[in-house]
Amino acid sequence: MNAKISFRDVVKTYPMKDETFVALDHVSLDIADREFVTVVGPSGCGKSTLMSMAAGLVEPGAGEVLVDGRPVTGPGPDRGVIFQQYALFPWLTVRKNVEFGLKLMELPAGERRRRAERAIELVGLSDFADALPKTLSGGMKQRCAIARAYAVNPQVLLMDEPFGALDALTRVQLQDQLLDTWSQEQRTVMFITHDVDEAVYLARRVIVMAARPGRIQQVIDVDLPYPRTEEMRLSPEFGRIRNEVWHAVYHQAPAASAA
Ligand SMILES: Nc1ncnc2c1ncn2[C@@H]1O[C@H](COP(=O)(O)OP(=O)(O)O)[C@@H](O)[C@H]1O
Ligand SMILES: [Mg+2]
Protein backbone atom coordinates (compact mmCIF):
# COMPACT_ATOMS: atom_id res chain seq x y z
CA MET A 1 0.00 0.00 0.00
CA ASN A 2 1.04 3.50 -0.82
CA ALA A 3 0.93 4.82 2.75
CA LYS A 4 1.92 8.43 3.31
CA ILE A 5 1.72 8.13 7.09
CA SER A 6 2.04 4.85 8.98
CA PHE A 7 1.56 4.29 12.67
CA ARG A 8 2.86 0.81 13.48
CA ASP A 9 2.03 -0.70 16.81
CA VAL A 10 2.52 2.62 18.53
CA VAL A 11 2.57 2.70 22.32
CA LYS A 12 2.83 5.78 24.52
CA THR A 13 2.84 5.65 28.28
CA TYR A 14 3.24 8.35 30.90
CA PRO A 15 4.46 7.60 34.41
CA MET A 16 1.88 8.29 37.12
CA LYS A 17 2.16 8.14 40.89
CA ASP A 18 2.06 4.38 41.34
CA GLU A 19 1.23 3.08 37.87
CA THR A 20 1.85 3.81 34.22
CA PHE A 21 -0.81 5.62 32.29
CA VAL A 22 -1.30 4.15 28.82
CA ALA A 23 -2.09 7.06 26.47
CA LEU A 24 -1.83 4.93 23.31
CA ASP A 25 -2.06 1.16 23.36
CA HIS A 26 -0.68 -0.53 20.22
CA VAL A 27 -2.18 1.78 17.64
CA SER A 28 -1.70 0.86 13.98
CA LEU A 29 -3.03 2.98 11.14
CA ASP A 30 -2.03 3.63 7.53
CA ILE A 31 -3.07 6.88 5.89
CA ALA A 32 -2.78 6.74 2.10
CA ASP A 33 -1.11 9.40 0.00
CA ARG A 34 -3.68 12.14 -0.72
CA GLU A 35 -6.20 10.68 1.65
CA PHE A 36 -8.34 12.82 3.97
CA VAL A 37 -8.94 11.13 7.32
CA THR A 38 -10.64 12.56 10.38
CA VAL A 39 -10.08 11.34 13.92
CA VAL A 40 -12.80 11.48 16.58
CA GLY A 41 -13.06 10.12 20.09
CA PRO A 42 -13.64 11.12 23.69
CA SER A 43 -11.39 13.62 25.39
CA GLY A 44 -8.14 12.02 26.53
CA CYS A 45 -8.18 9.09 24.08
CA GLY A 46 -4.83 10.14 22.61
CA LYS A 47 -5.85 11.97 19.41
CA SER A 48 -3.45 14.86 19.91
CA THR A 49 -0.67 12.54 21.04
CA LEU A 50 -1.04 10.45 17.89
CA MET A 51 -0.98 13.47 15.60
CA SER A 52 1.95 15.03 17.48
CA MET A 53 3.95 11.90 16.67
CA ALA A 54 3.33 12.38 12.94
CA ALA A 55 4.32 16.02 13.41
CA GLY A 56 7.57 14.96 15.07
CA LEU A 57 6.72 16.74 18.33
CA VAL A 58 6.24 13.61 20.46
CA GLU A 59 8.22 10.37 20.27
CA PRO A 60 6.52 7.00 20.43
CA GLY A 61 7.44 4.91 23.47
CA ALA A 62 7.35 1.79 21.31
CA GLY A 63 6.44 1.10 17.72
CA GLU A 64 7.10 3.28 14.69
CA VAL A 65 5.72 6.35 13.00
CA LEU A 66 6.68 6.62 9.34
CA VAL A 67 6.13 9.34 6.76
CA ASP A 68 6.91 8.27 3.20
CA GLY A 69 8.27 5.06 4.67
CA ARG A 70 10.88 6.83 6.79
CA PRO A 71 10.79 7.14 10.58
CA VAL A 72 9.80 10.60 11.80
CA THR A 73 12.67 12.19 13.69
CA GLY A 74 11.32 15.72 14.14
CA PRO A 75 9.20 18.44 12.54
CA GLY A 76 9.78 19.27 8.87
CA PRO A 77 8.44 21.48 6.07
CA ASP A 78 6.77 18.45 4.47
CA ARG A 79 4.26 18.49 7.35
CA GLY A 80 2.18 21.53 8.28
CA VAL A 81 0.59 21.58 11.72
CA ILE A 82 -2.47 23.63 12.69
CA PHE A 83 -3.71 23.71 16.28
CA GLN A 84 -6.97 24.95 17.72
CA GLN A 85 -5.37 28.01 19.25
CA TYR A 86 -4.17 30.49 16.67
CA ALA A 87 -0.56 30.97 17.80
CA LEU A 88 -0.01 34.10 15.71
CA PHE A 89 2.70 36.65 16.46
CA PRO A 90 0.67 39.64 17.72
CA TRP A 91 3.26 42.19 16.57
CA LEU A 92 3.32 40.93 12.98
CA THR A 93 0.74 41.66 10.28
CA VAL A 94 -1.21 38.86 8.62
CA ARG A 95 1.24 38.91 5.72
CA LYS A 96 4.30 38.79 7.98
CA ASN A 97 2.77 36.01 10.05
CA VAL A 98 2.20 33.97 6.90
CA GLU A 99 5.69 34.73 5.58
CA PHE A 100 7.27 33.74 8.86
CA GLY A 101 7.09 30.01 8.21
CA LEU A 102 8.74 30.56 4.84
CA LYS A 103 11.76 32.33 6.31
CA LEU A 104 12.87 29.04 7.82
CA MET A 105 12.87 27.58 4.30
CA GLU A 106 15.38 30.13 3.03
CA LEU A 107 13.34 31.13 0.00
CA PRO A 108 14.15 34.34 -1.88
CA ALA A 109 12.10 37.35 -0.72
CA GLY A 110 10.08 37.52 -3.95
CA GLU A 111 9.08 33.88 -3.74
CA ARG A 112 8.12 34.29 -0.08
CA ARG A 113 5.94 37.23 -0.95
CA ARG A 114 4.27 35.39 -3.83
CA ARG A 115 3.53 32.29 -1.77
CA ALA A 116 2.19 34.30 1.16
CA GLU A 117 -0.01 36.34 -1.19
CA ARG A 118 -1.52 33.22 -2.71
CA ALA A 119 -2.16 31.53 0.65
CA ILE A 120 -3.78 34.70 2.03
CA GLU A 121 -6.00 34.87 -1.04
CA LEU A 122 -6.97 31.20 -0.66
CA VAL A 123 -8.33 31.80 2.83
CA GLY A 124 -10.05 35.04 1.82
CA LEU A 125 -7.93 37.46 3.84
CA SER A 126 -6.46 39.58 1.03
CA ASP A 127 -8.19 42.73 2.29
CA PHE A 128 -6.59 42.23 5.71
CA ALA A 129 -3.04 41.32 4.68
CA ASP A 130 -1.61 44.38 6.45
CA ALA A 131 -3.78 44.12 9.56
CA LEU A 132 -2.50 43.09 12.98
CA PRO A 133 -4.05 39.99 14.61
CA LYS A 134 -5.71 41.99 17.40
CA THR A 135 -7.94 43.72 14.85
CA LEU A 136 -9.24 40.39 13.47
CA SER A 137 -12.13 38.16 14.56
CA GLY A 138 -11.46 34.65 15.84
CA GLY A 139 -12.37 33.16 12.48
CA MET A 140 -10.02 35.51 10.66
CA LYS A 141 -7.14 34.73 13.01
CA GLN A 142 -7.68 31.05 12.37
CA ARG A 143 -7.71 31.69 8.61
CA CYS A 144 -4.37 33.42 9.06
CA ALA A 145 -2.95 30.41 10.91
CA ILE A 146 -4.24 28.16 8.13
CA ALA A 147 -2.71 30.41 5.46
CA ARG A 148 0.62 30.18 7.24
CA ALA A 149 0.51 26.39 6.99
CA TYR A 150 -0.71 26.46 3.36
CA ALA A 151 2.05 28.85 2.28
CA VAL A 152 4.71 26.29 3.10
CA ASN A 153 2.86 23.99 0.70
CA PRO A 154 3.31 20.89 2.81
CA GLN A 155 2.47 17.48 1.43
CA VAL A 156 0.83 16.61 4.73
CA LEU A 157 -1.53 18.75 6.79
CA LEU A 158 -1.99 17.80 10.44
CA MET A 159 -4.93 19.68 11.93
CA ASP A 160 -5.88 19.39 15.62
CA GLU A 161 -9.44 20.68 16.15
CA PRO A 162 -8.64 23.69 14.00
CA PHE A 163 -12.24 24.92 13.70
CA GLY A 164 -13.33 24.00 17.23
CA ALA A 165 -13.61 27.55 18.53
CA LEU A 166 -15.40 29.03 15.52
CA ASP A 167 -19.06 29.87 14.96
CA ALA A 168 -21.11 27.44 12.84
CA LEU A 169 -21.14 29.52 9.65
CA THR A 170 -17.41 30.28 9.62
CA ARG A 171 -16.78 26.65 10.34
CA VAL A 172 -18.79 25.45 7.34
CA GLN A 173 -17.04 28.00 5.09
CA LEU A 174 -13.61 26.86 6.25
CA GLN A 175 -14.56 23.20 5.78
CA ASP A 176 -15.54 23.83 2.15
CA GLN A 177 -12.46 25.92 1.53
CA LEU A 178 -10.24 23.23 3.07
CA LEU A 179 -11.79 20.57 0.83
CA ASP A 180 -11.28 22.83 -2.20
CA THR A 181 -7.59 23.30 -1.55
CA TRP A 182 -7.15 19.66 -0.60
CA SER A 183 -8.56 18.51 -3.94
CA GLN A 184 -6.52 21.09 -5.88
CA GLU A 185 -3.22 20.51 -4.14
CA GLN A 186 -3.71 16.79 -3.51
CA ARG A 187 -2.42 16.81 0.03
CA THR A 188 -2.71 14.19 2.70
CA VAL A 189 -4.79 15.45 5.61
CA MET A 190 -5.17 14.11 9.16
CA PHE A 191 -7.83 16.17 10.91
CA ILE A 192 -8.92 15.82 14.55
CA THR A 193 -12.37 17.03 15.53
CA HIS A 194 -14.94 16.46 18.25
CA ASP A 195 -17.74 17.29 15.82
CA VAL A 196 -19.21 14.15 14.26
CA ASP A 197 -20.84 16.06 11.38
CA GLU A 198 -17.54 17.70 10.53
CA ALA A 199 -15.73 14.36 10.71
CA VAL A 200 -18.12 12.77 8.20
CA TYR A 201 -18.38 15.78 5.89
CA LEU A 202 -14.62 16.06 5.36
CA ALA A 203 -13.27 12.54 5.39
CA ARG A 204 -12.94 9.52 3.21
CA ARG A 205 -12.43 7.54 6.44
CA VAL A 206 -13.33 8.41 10.01
CA ILE A 207 -11.03 6.94 12.65
CA VAL A 208 -12.93 6.49 15.91
CA MET A 209 -10.71 6.22 18.98
CA ALA A 210 -11.53 5.02 22.48
CA ALA A 211 -9.98 5.98 25.82
CA ARG A 212 -8.39 4.13 28.73
CA PRO A 213 -6.34 2.91 27.12
CA GLY A 214 -6.18 5.08 23.99
CA ARG A 215 -6.79 2.90 20.95
CA ILE A 216 -8.57 2.70 17.63
CA GLN A 217 -12.13 1.55 18.18
CA GLN A 218 -13.43 1.50 14.64
CA VAL A 219 -12.64 2.82 11.16
CA ILE A 220 -15.69 3.97 9.22
CA ASP A 221 -15.64 4.52 5.45
CA VAL A 222 -17.49 7.53 4.11
CA ASP A 223 -18.75 6.44 0.71
CA LEU A 224 -19.82 9.85 -0.47
CA PRO A 225 -18.24 11.34 -3.60
CA TYR A 226 -16.14 14.50 -3.66
CA PRO A 227 -16.77 17.35 -4.05
CA ARG A 228 -18.92 17.25 -0.94
CA THR A 229 -21.89 19.61 -1.02
CA GLU A 230 -24.18 21.16 1.55
CA GLU A 231 -27.08 19.08 0.16
CA MET A 232 -25.15 15.91 1.02
CA ARG A 233 -25.36 16.80 4.70
CA LEU A 234 -29.11 16.26 4.43
CA SER A 235 -28.93 12.98 2.51
CA PRO A 236 -29.99 9.67 4.05
CA GLU A 237 -26.53 8.21 3.40
CA PHE A 238 -24.85 11.04 5.30
CA GLY A 239 -27.30 10.54 8.16
CA ARG A 240 -26.61 6.82 8.23
CA ILE A 241 -22.84 7.31 8.42
CA ARG A 242 -23.18 10.05 11.03
CA ASN A 243 -25.25 7.70 13.20
CA GLU A 244 -22.68 4.97 12.83
CA VAL A 245 -19.86 7.30 13.91
CA TRP A 246 -21.96 8.73 16.72
CA HIS A 247 -22.72 5.27 18.00
CA ALA A 248 -19.05 4.23 17.83
CA VAL A 249 -18.02 7.31 19.82
CA TYR A 250 -20.75 7.42 22.44
CA HIS A 251 -21.51 3.76 23.02
CA GLN A 252 -18.00 2.50 23.45
CA ALA A 253 -17.50 -0.91 25.00
CA PRO A 254 -14.88 -1.00 27.74
CA ALA A 255 -11.44 -2.23 26.72
CA ALA A 256 -11.22 -5.97 26.26
CA SER A 257 -8.37 -6.05 28.76
CA ALA A 258 -10.44 -4.35 31.48
CA ALA A 259 -11.25 -6.62 34.41
N1 LIG B 1 3.02 15.12 28.68
C1 LIG B 1 2.08 14.37 29.27
N2 LIG B 1 2.24 13.87 30.51
C2 LIG B 1 1.31 13.09 31.10
N3 LIG B 1 0.14 12.76 30.51
C3 LIG B 1 -0.09 13.22 29.27
C4 LIG B 1 0.84 14.04 28.58
N4 LIG B 1 0.34 14.34 27.35
C5 LIG B 1 -0.87 13.74 27.30
N5 LIG B 1 -1.12 13.07 28.45
C6 LIG B 1 -2.32 12.26 28.73
O1 LIG B 1 -2.52 11.37 27.67
C7 LIG B 1 -3.90 11.25 27.38
C8 LIG B 1 -4.13 11.54 25.92
O2 LIG B 1 -3.97 12.93 25.70
P1 LIG B 1 -4.33 13.63 24.33
O3 LIG B 1 -3.54 12.99 23.25
O4 LIG B 1 -4.16 15.09 24.52
O5 LIG B 1 -5.87 13.25 24.16
P2 LIG B 1 -6.99 13.90 23.22
O6 LIG B 1 -6.32 14.80 22.25
O7 LIG B 1 -7.68 12.74 22.59
O8 LIG B 1 -7.93 14.63 24.14
C9 LIG B 1 -4.64 12.20 28.29
O9 LIG B 1 -5.20 11.47 29.36
C10 LIG B 1 -3.56 13.13 28.78
O10 LIG B 1 -3.84 13.60 30.07
MG1 LIG C 1 -6.51 16.83 21.86
UniProtKB/TrEMBL annotation:
InterPro entries: AAA+_ATPase (IPR003593), ABC_transporter-like_ATP-bd (IPR003439), ABC_transporter_ATP-bind (IPR050166), P-loop_NTPase (IPR027417). Residues 5-232 form the ABC transporter domain. Keywords: ATP-binding, Nucleotide-binding, Transport. It comes from the Bacteria. GO terms for molecular function: ATP binding; ATP hydrolysis activity. This is NitT/TauT family transport system ATP-binding protein. SMART domains: AAA (SM00382). It comes from Nonomuraea solani.
